[in-house]
Amino acid sequence: MTVRNRGALAALAAGVAALTVATLVACGSQPAEDVGADEAAQLATATPSAAGTEGPSVPVTTGELPAGAETVKPVRLAIPAIDVKATINAVGINKRTNEFEVPPSVDEIGWYRYGPGLEADAGSIVIAGHVDSAQQGKGAFFRLRELDQGDTLTATGSDGKAREYRVVAREEYDKTKIPLDRYFARDGKPRLTLITCGGPFDAKARKYRDNIVVTAVPA
Question: Is the distance from CB of 36 to CB of 168 less than 8 angstroms?
């Protein structure tokens, strides 16, 4: 599958573009400050596009894994620091909306199946989830913005193996300025990329302005 343009990718990265929560004010609160931005950038070998410009598509373009590769799908995620124990579903892109097809249940999260699996020795493993929902309340990633450097998380794969990761960065971007080629890259050092919505809620547009991105590396 080909991701065609940056505009579609911005919605894809959000994973929660259709959220309709105006009442949960805490969801829109910002982290105290970004942490580890330089370290996160150094994990990727691809040069990110300039903010606010129409850069190239994310390096994940065909969705084809290397021939003969045995992809280990992440199936569960546990983050003790923010009380997360969530099921992970393999997801792609909604053909109708061209957006990241996050599971409809806010308790579940989605792994971008056209990117690397847990066995990969390079690239960004992308997992996105809802921050909240007007109908369902708080999502699995409601407190993602609270994670800090050094916090640990565990991703369990379809092979039954639990893999530990350590948070190195937490960043907040306007959705129009997030360097998607960096976070969806299949090159660079292996890392786990968690994405949800954040920042102020636009009641008129019925969505949050920003993305919260947490980067973790194998512990």
Answer: yes
We find that the CATH architecture of domain 6-52+72-218 is Beta Barrel (2.40)
The alpha carbon of 151 is separated from its chain's Cα centroid by a whole number of angstroms, namely: 17
Strands (E), 92-151: 109-112, 124-128, 132-133, 137-138
pLDDT tens figures, 149-200: 999 999 999 999 999 999 999 999 998 888 888 898 888 999 999 999 998 8
Q: Which secondary-structure segment (H or E) carries 39?
A: helix 37-42
Query: How far apart are the C-alpha atoms of 141 and 46, rounded to whole Å?
Result: 27
In single-letter form, the type of residue at position 194 comes to L
The one-letter amino acid at 9: L
d(CA 76, CA 109): 9
